Amino acid sequence: MERLISGLTGKYVIFTAAFAIRLALVAYGDYQDRTMVVKYTDIDYHVFTDAARFITEGESPYNRSTYRYTPLLAWMLTPNIHLSMMFGKILFIVCDVLSGLLIYRILRLRGLNSETARHVCALWLLNPLPMGVSSRGNAESILAALVLGTLLCMEARHLIWAAVLYGLSVHMKIYPITYALPIALALRTTRSEDIKRWRWRSFIGFMGSFLNRELLLFASVAGGVFCMLTALFYYMYGWEFLHETYLYHLTRRDIRHNFSPYFYMLYLTADSRWSQWLGLAAFLPQLILLLVASWAFHSDLPFCCFLHTAVFVSFNKVCTSQYFLWYLCLLPLIIPHLSLSVKQGVGLLILWFTGQGIWLGPAYFWSLKATTPSC
Amino acid sequence: MYFVLFSVLACLSTCHCFTGNDENHCGLLKRLLESSRVSVEINKKGFHREAVTTVELSPDVLSGVRVLLVHRWPRGVYLDPYQLASLSVESDWQILLDSAIDLELPAHKTSGFVTYVYPTVDGPTPRLLKVTIPVHGRYHKPSYDGKTFTSVDIEAPELLLRTEKCTQLSIFEPHAVVDAPCTADNSSACSWVKLQHQQEQGAVGLQFPVGDGSLVTPVCGGTLLVTMISCVALSKYLWKHRLV
């Protein structure tokens, strides 16, 4: 049995198998789309393809309604129009397997041996959720690869590459901006004295510790990449780019298909004058937890990023099922270092699925049957 | 002279033929208007439904008659233009929307819209037409009077008929003559005769669930309390187990 598991997770076997399974799913998805009424491909993939089509015709991708991503994504998917509709999905599954490879490299750098690292990688590579998401045509795997790339470069102290990848990931989706604080805390000059009592001098010293070469280099490269991309696309597509890519997500109050704990509150108060204050009140727990998590765990950057993402997703005003992938890709990095027993881990997993079930059950009845389940 | 007489007679007979045919086509249209039926029923449940429009044209030769269905949709529902575009590739009808549709707005922030459906674009019009259009419900405002459902009424579409070969449309009183796009590409307008609405089918009512607005205070209070308590508990736990 041990030899079988060992053989199955052999270094090249697992990556090849993961890619092959995803490729098979893409092929099956194409078959299902052509023959059955219920389509395999996600509606988002059609949105990306339509936006790419607008670009090939020389127009703005934002002519496609509900396209709320960076133009870079539509540009990357223009081969969907020139070559084949499958190109985008192949790109996403390649990024998915690449994410697995990056997880393996980070685990090796953090001191795991090759075999254990491969077993842990299997949690991502052979996990049906990322397989399904990428083969259906969601672009989350690109962001997972960028975030994991940033963490790998930080772990290996290639700061310029880390900064480039970080700037790119923030450009693609806003949420990695929350990693800025733990990265800054990790890169600052650590002093030997412990801050026991807050005084002006220690406060100034604390602020001064942020002004070192590494942090300034990281900030300027990441900021430069982000600003350059923003300026380029603003020049090409104007205000609509800023609104759809960033501002919409910041002010988004999605009252439909939403896992957020705030969803009903926001639905009931959508048109009231308290709406803005409630939005702010909903933002506070998120902010407080992000600050506390940054300070408490910045010395272990992957763990800190995982906590950040979990807090961000759980306490956000909008949460769709894609958001779960944002912290799922970081979970394999921290699992080897957890002191949870297997029983506790499985218990927590069951709790997570139960929560999903309690939410999705009534949601199914509400949306597809329009009945309110009698409690 | 015989030649002149013959050509005059031929001319007169063709003129008679033309007017006779015109009368035949107009008579056909009149008979169609008197005995055609149009009805709509809504299938499926929930927020994603199907509107199936059935048109029964009276049993007669139907060559050259074109049909147009005009649906006037209320603000509580919407159609997805992208879904319609992919559907009309697979089926034989084409649809024209009178305005851009925002897919995400709640009902009270939008207005109704009109669609023009052209069944069987190519080929002769059959006697029984069925057109299935996917319809989606919009989210509505919460109710404050204890009702858990809100009603949206869908009326049967207007049936418009025309034929190239009948041009005297004024003879079809009391059926009104209206202008509408000739085809789904909206390049030109034509005159159509509108079937007088039968009274036997009224509007079809759709029920969509809505939230309970009277629960605003407990919901807000409860949500904020739970999230604040979670925040405090997690912060304490994180701080206790921080890495130095």
Short description:
Chain A is mainly α. Chain A contains 20 helices and no strands. By secondary structure, chain B is of the alpha+beta class.
Q: Could you explain how this protein is built, in words?
A:
The complex is a heterodimer of chains A (375) and B (244). Chain A is built from 20 helices and no strands. Chain A has 375 residues and is mostly helical. The model of chain B has no long low-confidence stretch (mean pLDDT 83). Classes of the chains: A mainly alpha (375), B alpha+beta (244). At the A-B interface, helix 15, helix 16 and helix 20 of A face strand 12 and helix 3 of B. Chain A: Pfam families: Mannosyl_trans.
By secondary-structure content and strand pairing, the structural class of chain B works out as alpha+beta
Shape of chain B: elongated
> What class would the helix/strand composition of chain A place it in?
mainly alpha
In whole angstroms, how far apart are the ends of chain B?
Answer: 122 Å
Using the CA coordinates, give the radius of gyration of chain A.
22 Å
Order of helices and strands of chain A: HHHHHHHHHHHHHHHHHHHH
Counting DSSP E segments of at least 2 residues, the number of strands of chain A comes to: 0
DSSP, total strands of chain B: 12
Radius of gyration of chain B, whole Å: 28 Å
> What are the segments of chain A in which pLDDT stays under 50 over at least 5 consecutive residues?
none
Count of discrete alpha- or pi-helical segments spanning 4 or more residues of chain A: 20
Profile the largest sheet of chain A.
Answer: none
- pLDDT averaged residue by residue of chain B: 83
Uncertain segments of chain B of ≥5 residues (pLDDT<50)?
A: none
Tell the overall outline of chain A: globular
Q: What number is the mean pLDDT of chain A?
A: 88
Give the fraction of residues assigned to helices of chain A.
over 70%
Task: Kindly report how far apart the N and C termini of chain A lie.
Answer: 47 Å
Q: Please report the number of helical segments of chain B.
A: 3
Task: Tell me the major beta sheet of chain B.
Answer: 6 strands, antiparallel
> Largest inter-chain interface?
A-B, 40 and 38 residues
